[in-house]
Specification:
seven-stranded mixed β-sheet, globular
Length: 119
């Protein structure tokens, strides 16, 4: 079993920054890739940033140049640095862990952390 716990959300003014953290615990050997998603009210959950299975990074077009995904493997933590935040970035942000192909089952999700950006 794998547990993901996010932190770092909050209220910030437009143009400000936040850094989200996702601490991973449990059987981390089953994890193949990590990502951050977000879901705003009335919208579907969308991919924000991700490490691919090969270690590369992907970003949603809306956050390129403003958000950075990083990780500290020694501390089993994945970060999302968010700069130049805008009101449209307001959402609940979720940490996601995809499974290795040899470990069937659903992906793992954290409980989410609220990010609110005021104009």
């Amino acid at each position: 079993q794998v547990q993901l716990v996010e932190s770092g959300g909050g209220l910030v003014q437009a143009g400000g920054s936040l850094r989200l953290a996702c601490v991973i615990s449990g059987n981390t050997n089953v994890i193949s890739a990590m990502a951050w998603y977000r879901q705003a009210p009335g919208n579907q959950r969308e991919l924000v940033a991700a490490f691919t299975r090969t270690g590369n990074t992907n970003y949603a077009d809306s956050v390129k140049g403003r958000f950075t995904i990083s990780r500290n493997s020694a501390q089993n933590t994945v970060y999302l640095q968010m700069n130049s935040l805008q009101p449209e970035d307001t959402a609940v942000y979720y940490c996601n862990a995809d499974r290795q192909s040899w470990s069937p089952g659903p992906a793992y999700w954290g409980q989410g952390t609220q990010v609110t950006v005021s104009p």
